[in-house]
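User: Run a structure prediction on this.
Assistant: Running it now.
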Amino acid sequence: QVQLVESGGGLVQAGGSLRLSCAASGRTFSAYAMAWFRQAPGKEREFVASIMSSGRITYYVDSVKGRFTISRDNAKNTVYLQMNSLKPEDTAVYYCNTNGGVWSWGQGTQVTVSS
């Protein structure tokens, strides 16, 4: 079973930046489209961004377009989320998974943006 470990979260002021990382165990990482999701307090988990297995095609939810960039390093079994111009509404626990959410969820990483 693939294990996912997210890291890189923290407390940042509005307008700041963070870079999240998600390391996956196992040898099947490169075959999957990967995605970042987030869950704010009292809300359901939502899609944020995805990247195809080749890394050449990406998708973003409208609220983060132009501010977040998803990337991956298949040699390191790692997917990244560069978050710039952060807003208080970006505050959430961030998770990675395959695009379809087929692997067990990791513990996530907390991102808190203060106004």
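Residues 39 and 45 are 4 Å apart (CA to CA).
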